[in-house]
Amino acid sequence: MNRIRVNATALFLIRFLSFIAIALLCLILGYITYRGLYKSEKIESETLGGLFMEQDYFINTSSHEGLRTLSYFTLQKMALGKVSSWRSITSVDEPFSLYIEPAMVEPFARSMGIEKELILAGGARIGKIPKVLVPGALVISANPISGMKTVQVEDQVLVTNPKVMELYGNNRVTSLSKSQLEGVLSGDVSSWDQVGGPNLPTTRNKNIGQLSLNEGSYGIFSAKEYLDAKKKGSALSLLPTEKEERGANLTGSYLVAKTVESGKYGGIGTIILNTLVMVLLTLLVAGPLGISAAVYLEEYARKGKIKDSISSAIDILSGIPSIIFGLFGLLVFVQLCGWSFSLISGTLTVSLMILPTVIRTSQEAIKTVNPTLKEASLALGATKLETIWHIVLPSSKRGIVTGLILAIGRSIGETAALIYTIGSSTDLVHGLTSSCRVLSMHIYLTITEGQSSDKAFASALVLVVMVLLINTLAKILMKGGRKS
Amino acid sequence: MNAVFEIRGLNLWYGQAHALKDVDLSIPRNSITAFIGPSGCGKSTFLRVLDRMNDLVDGVRITGKVNFDGKDIYQHYEAMELRRKVGMVFQKPNPFPMSILDNIAYGPRLYGSPNKHDLMEIVERTLRQASLWDEVKDRLHKNALSLSGGQQQRLCIARTLAVNPEVILMDEPTSALDPISTTHIENLMIELKKKYTIVVVTHNMQQASRVSDVTCFFLIDEQRCGFLVESGNTEDMFFKPRDKRTEDYISGKFG
Hints:
The complex is a heterodimer.
Chain A: H1 2-37, E1 42-45, E2 58-61, E3 69-71, H2 72-79, H3 87-90, E4 97-100, H4 105-112, H5 116-121, E5 125-126, E6 137-141, E7 149-154, E8 156-160, H6 178-186, E9 203-204, E10 217-222, H7 223-231, E11 237-238, E12 241-244, H8 252-256, E13 259-260, E14 265-266, H9 269-300, H10 305-319, H11 322-336, H12 343-367, H13 371-379, H14 384-412, H15 416-419, H16 439-448, H17 453-483
Parallel strand pairs in A: 3-7, 4-5, 4-6, 9-10
Antiparallel strand pairs in A: 1-12, 2-6, 2-7, 8-10, 8-11, 13-14
Chain B: E1 3-14, E2 17-28, E3 32-36, H1 43-50, E4 60-68, E5 71-72, H2 79-85, E6 86-89, H3 100-110, H4 116-129, H5 133-136, H6 149-161, E7 167-171, H7 179-192, E8 197-201, H8 205-211, E9 214-220, E10 226-233, H9 234-239, H10 244-250
Parallel strand pairs in B: 2-10, 3-8, 3-9, 6-7, 7-8
Antiparallel strand pairs in B: 1-2, 1-4, 4-5, 9-10
């Protein structure tokens, strides 16, 4: 009875553990997919979300990205001609242009709180709106324009007495998260020290003129009111709030667009191409070298100490962490050969890294060739080379190709070996000695440089899909090999 | 009947192990010579001396003289050259994993680039010689592995014939085949000896007596070293052996 109970318990335990393992893997994959597909980065915003300005005109855009709202401050900058590209707004590097119907200049300038002349000086095109507009145009008109999206303006801001945002001990309030804001508005947060600020009571004031009198007071006003009050000399602070960005993260344009500002804006079109170039070159270097070495070891090398030591050296090399290959690449290719951070330095480093794998898998494939086939070929008077070329390599083709594909999978995701060798230029690679950023490096750099975690996850999803595709291909090939 | 092979004082070692001792033998032209003997007596090893297939094994050392057509096989021939003239058929059928046609064409293609017409001529001639033509003529482009075991073995014989050898060595060519396929191959051997010299290693005493003209009997001594007991006309060997050990073996007292 005892044995049976142990058996049942063990079975349950094994099932439980395997379930946990599978669940963890699904969780990771699901998380990467979710973060890759949807934006979920929290950004600090000066305006409060969901509250829009009343306006006497319509704002239309021909921007392709899902732009629905603009901040009042951004629109003001646009009106003054200080915005030349959409990249900091939609992250797509489209040129920005502003068109205003003549009758709308007056109300637009008034709501922006700036002089008409400043808008004219800012380069806005005033006149009849052309029928066909370039992408990236923003049009201020009396009526909505068909075929363009209408944009609303967020203009409500959280204004406080400057004391609230002053340094207090080692802490200060720099922004409020969504829940903190709700707490302040509902009165659950009765003192600013509950959100990391000074020990002042939170009191709401409807009159912007009185905010400067009460040290802990705050209020929600329109941006124009805030700017006007500041102009009059009131001491006021604007407390930013955290806002979650929504919408598609990995879009078609992200896959093809050029990278802007090291991955903060734009896409990864050139980086995907760079990755493909690097992988192809790696294959061109490691493939012939690895297969030749495998043929030598399996077909020519005599059994003995030399072959054994070569074999164990290959095994050791395949177990060496890739960062050490990177270090080697830095010392030899980058410095000694003087190729600096370049495609060729990176390619050679990764080639060396995958070489042991290529040799091993090719060796295994060659080993499976039936020795009687080799004998048959030799017995017909074929030379060793002819036998290898006509019999051994064709028979082990599938195994060798599978090994190469797995090696591609490894090199496509390699980062450590590339940090010191391949460089980080986001331009399309234009020569062997040009610096070249690949996908894995791009993910690493966007995170370490703090550019954007959303962008990093979008790139990560692309990389995961590429690796999965490659591994599936290898699996299909392996299955086909077993059948024949 | 002049001799194709003249072997004098042949000794062979695998590393330190003495595997064949003092073999003297002449193999006559256009006849079938059968090597018989218990397992491990060195008859296959000896067969592989004749087309220098033992060269491929690490640590093999050979002394003595082996003449092929009057010339020493180690001094006057490159191994490839010799193997073209001395073809070999193996124990298990081993067609290449390609089409029937490509199997036959493998040898001829090594020695030049025959045009399509010549190649088809070779394919038809050799397949007819191997009495396989009628069975496969409609599916020459099918994979050779789709044939039955007996057909595969005949294909291997046809493949060997395609490079015009003088001698065909057969290493237990029927041991992996069923009785009907075996009969096919045996008839084929008798047919082929008109043009070729055949040397066959066999475990099957009946086969040796049915097909061979000359029989050579091998044994191992106490040091596990193979040696040739005697050789002679098959009829003499089977009905009036000179050596007591031959008689015992043939009558089934041991082995």
